[in-house]
Amino acid sequence: MRPFLLLASRAEDAAADEEYRSLLRHGGLHPDELVRVRLEAGSVADLDPADYAGVIIGGSPFTVSDRHKSSVQRRVEADLGVIVDEILRRDLPMLALCYGVGIVGARTGGVVDATYGEETSAAEIRLTPEGAVDPLLAGLPAGFQAYVGHKEAVTVLPPRATVLATSPTCPVQMYRLGRHGYVTQFHPEMDLASVITRIEVYRDSGYFDAAEMAAVIDRVTRADVSAAHHLVRAFVLRYRGAAVQRVDAELLAG
Q1: How many domains does the chain have?
Q2: Helical pair 13-27 and 192-201, crossing angle rounded to 10 deg
Q3: pLDDT digit string (tens) for 28-76?
Q4: Which one of 2, 142, 223, 252 is separated from 123 by 20 to 30 angstroms, measured CA to CA?
Q5: What pLDDT is stored for residue 187 in this prediction?
């Protein structure tokens, strides 16, 4: 069975490792089933996404709409852009989380800017009618909580994208391109342990007022984001070594 691939770009080891562990936990994966490539550490010019069961693009402290970018950020964006082009051209399985909204959105003709940024919190996510019938979202309630924390979001959707989930403060919380390209603004992989790690690591990075860190931790602790984790597991089940059509039918049958 082919493994899944995580394309990560967090230079901070604590946040990077917790992201990887959370995907293993909620995807029901063993470490040899999820290959992690840390893009900030070097180029991946020869990587072929078709070698993997599916590609997960992790979150990042990088922001696509930044005016001033480091050389590392520019290289990561360029490498991810080439990989995303290939994934979408071949309609390969992809789950792009948070930073993926900026990468995929900007690469495919959408508008990504700071209009709908959200401080670190648990957002109220609602499925659209299209999301309610999407096979990857089968089993999710119509409304659920999920952790968010981002400085940019999609303001104008890419052409041919389908909105699958929304929220009161961010109109595009999830969309699909093609049949198998999924992009989320919220973090389905993030549980309490991982969100607290990121709060501590990125306390001075502008996702919230650093002086209010204790209050931020308190509000995320009171949230129940367990339903959101279903999305990670559903992605793994749908694309793990089985015909897409057969697994779609099993998920829809519930």
Answers
A1: 1
A2: 170
A3: 999 999 999 999 998 787 899 999 999 999 999 999 999 899 999 999 9
A4: 252
A5: 97
Smallest Cα–Cα separation from 146: which of 110, 111, 120?
A: 120
Q: Which amino acid is at 143?
A: G
C-alpha 221/C-alpha 224 separation (Å) is 8
Q: Whole domain around residue 183: which residue ranges?
A: 4-253
- 57 C-beta neighbours (distance < 10 Å), count: 26
Residue 61: what are its φ and ψ, rounded to 5°?
Answer: -75, -10
- Other C-beta atoms within 10 Å of 124: how many? 15
Domain CATH code at residue 23: 3.40.50.880
The whole-model pTM stands at 0.92
**Please, what's the b/e burial string for 195-232 (b: 16 or more CB within 10 A of its CB; e: otherwise)?**
bbbbbebbbeeebbeeeeeeebbeebeebebebbbbbb
Q: Which residue has the tokens 């089968």?
A: 138
